[in-house]
């Protein structure tokens, strides 16, 4: 950090860990373009500023990484580390695989996975939700897009969990070991799909291998790196959101009862939970030149966090922004980002969260927090550990 810039907040201090939303509320009001005390980055906390930055890849590039702090074990991977127009070339095949009608076709299988993990958890009358149910469920959902055997899918999920834990606890050596293990598996999948390709609208590796840029196929290592990126991106955020959603419901028995009687209301409830508990705090860009926002100068080469949870509680966009209002309409939250890099898996993410909640509500009379949750720190928001007790629903 340059000596003439004073930090406005510390993403690793105790106040932030206890309640980052309280910090974001203060910064939105007093210092909407805030300087972090670590890693020399800026944080945008206002909705309009984040939308603007997300829409200007020429000024705020993704090519130098997309997280704060910079991932010490990350190489450049498509599509997230490319700006338009290159970005669209890499993303197009994934868009086809993730379009609404394709996701709808997968709903029965995703529900089967939700039933499997929720029922096992409820039969034990609860436990630690994140590692016993939410994380393995999300891992197997994404494995459906890889078309790999169950044993390999579970092994990939375990490696992903270990990688994410190492990242969350700033252990780069452990993260690098799991990163290399994930890369090795992804290279094996790419090699297999080159020999026996699947339908590119049903298989992530085949979709990337079928991609042509200026008439040429993608390099095998780029395809493996893209799969490695997708494995983590498709796991971290949905797992954290499921944890936050279940935690919210566990603290609101009346809402649980309402949703058991009126499960159709879950669609709107999930949107409001996405707004309140967007999991990505440190999603980032890098300034390509000096730029001024709200009187503060961001220098070329400095990283800028687009703090989506802060945008989602901006009172300029949302009435009673700290309140849970499932009837909120419209609800233009940014939980999936904005602009060319808006998450292509938004439909799949909404579905896997909703089905998990549906099955948990349907299979319980009630559930409640059994002990204080352990929350993840920057750059993710959500429970790391969530002890839960469940009362199974009596046969009807």
Question: How would you describe the overall organization of this protein?
Answer:
- Strands 1-2-10-7-3 form a five-stranded mixed beta sheet.
- The chain starts with 13 loop residues before the first helix and ends with a strand.
- It is globular and about 65 Å long.
- The chain has helices spanning 14-18, 20-30, 47-54, 86-97, 100-123, 129-143, 150-168, 172-195, 204-209, 220-250, 253-261, 266-276, 308-311, 346-362, and strands at residues 33-35, 41-44, 60-61, 126-128, 212-213, 216-217, 284-287, 291-293, 296-298, 303-306, 364-369, 374-375, 383-385, 387-392.
- Helix 7 (150-168) runs antiparallel to helix 8 (172-195) and helix 12 (266-276) packs across helix 14 (346-362).
- Strand 8 (291-293) and strand 9 (296-298) form a beta hairpin.
- It has a single domain, classed as Cytochrome P450 (Cytochrome p450), CATH 1.10.630.10.
- It is an alpha+beta fold and 396 residues long.
- The longest helix has 31 residues, at 220-250.
- It has 14 helices and 14 strands.
SSE blueprint:
Layout: H1 14-18, H2 20-30, E1 33-35, E2 41-44, H3 47-54, E3 60-61, H4 86-97, H5 100-123, E4 126-128, H6 129-143, H7 150-168, H8 172-195, H9 204-209, E5 212-213, E6 216-217, H10 220-250, H11 253-261, H12 266-276, E7 284-287, E8 291-293, E9 296-298, E10 303-306, H13 308-311, H14 346-362, E11 364-369, E12 374-375, E13 383-385, E14 387-392
Parallel strand pairs: 2-10
Antiparallel strand pairs: 1-2, 3-7, 4-14, 5-6, 7-10, 8-9, 11-14, 12-13
């Amino acid at each position: 950090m340059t000596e003439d810039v004073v930090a406005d907040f510390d993403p690793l201090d105790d106040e932030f860990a206890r309640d980052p939303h309280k910090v974001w509320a203060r910064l939105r009001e007093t210092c909407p373009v805030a300087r972090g005390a670590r890693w020399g980055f800026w944080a945008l906390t206002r909705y309009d500023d984040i939308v603007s930055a997300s829409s200007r890849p020429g000024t705020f590039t993704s090519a130098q990484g997309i997280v704060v702090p910079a991932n010490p074990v990350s190489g450049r991977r498509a599509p997230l580390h490319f700006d338009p127009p290159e970005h669209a070339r890499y993303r197009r095949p994934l868009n086809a695989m993730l379009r609404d009608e394709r996701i709808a076709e997968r709903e029965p299988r995703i529900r089967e996975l939700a039933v499997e993990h929720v029922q096992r958890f409820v039969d034990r009358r609860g436990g630690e939700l994140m590692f016993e149910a939410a994380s393995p469920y999300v891992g197997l959902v994404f494995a459906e897009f890889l078309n790999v055997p169950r044993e390999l899918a579970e092994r990939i999920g375990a490696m992903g969990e270990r990688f994410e834990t190492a990242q969350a606890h700033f252990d780069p050596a452990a993260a690098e070991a799991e990163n290399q293990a994930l890369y090795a598996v992804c290279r094996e999948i790419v090699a297999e799909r080159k020999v026996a390709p699947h339908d590119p609208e049903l298989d992530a590796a085949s979709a990337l291998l079928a991609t042509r840029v200026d008439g040429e196929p993608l390099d095998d290592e780029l395809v493996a790196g893209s799969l490695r990126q997708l494995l983590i991106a498709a796991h971290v955020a949905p797992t954290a959101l499921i944890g936050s959603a279940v935690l919210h419901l566990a603290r609101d028995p009346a809402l649980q009862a309402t949703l058991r009687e009126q499960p159709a209301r879950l669609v709107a409830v999930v949107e409001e939970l996405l707004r309140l508990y967007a999991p990505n705090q440190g999603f980032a860009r890098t300034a390509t030149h000096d730029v001024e926002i709200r009187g503060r100068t961001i220098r070329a080469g400095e990283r800028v966090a687009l703090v989506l949870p802060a945008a989602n509680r901006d009172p300029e966009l949302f009435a009673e922004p700290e309140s849970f209002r499932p009837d909120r309409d419209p609800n233009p939250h940014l939980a999936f980002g904005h602009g060319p890099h808006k998450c292509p898996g938004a439909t799949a993410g909404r579905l896997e969260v909703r089905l998990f909640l549906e099955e948990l509500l349907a299979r319980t009379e009630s559930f409640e927090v059994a002990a204080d949750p352990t929350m993840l720190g920057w750059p993710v928001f959500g429970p790391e550990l969530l002890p839960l007790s469940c009362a199974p629903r009596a046969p009807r």
